[in-house]
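We treat protein structure as text, and this decision shapes the records that our systems exchange. Because each token names a local backbone shape, the row as a whole describes the fold. An entry from our holdings is shown next, in its original layout:
>
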Amino acid sequence: MTFAEAEQYLAATFRPLVVVHSSYSLYMEALTLSRRYSLSWCDSPIVSAASESQCRILYSEGLQDGQSFDSVKVQNPFAGL
């Protein structure tokens, strides 16, 4: 793959996935979620970003399968394997 092909591939594949950027409100919501649900600080910005981008399902093997954080529900993609 050439550099130009790699740039085109990354732009077409990953750019649409990167929708939520760091912001004051994201981190404030992360603090609120951390306190409300006893989440670790490492997990709370992930859940906050999922909520901000209006994700209904957050795929994670590190969070508890089936747990809900307001409108975000965790699903372990490896559960039941």
About this structure: The beta strands are 57-59, 68-69, 72-75. The mean pLDDT is 91. The chain is about 40% helix and 10% strand.
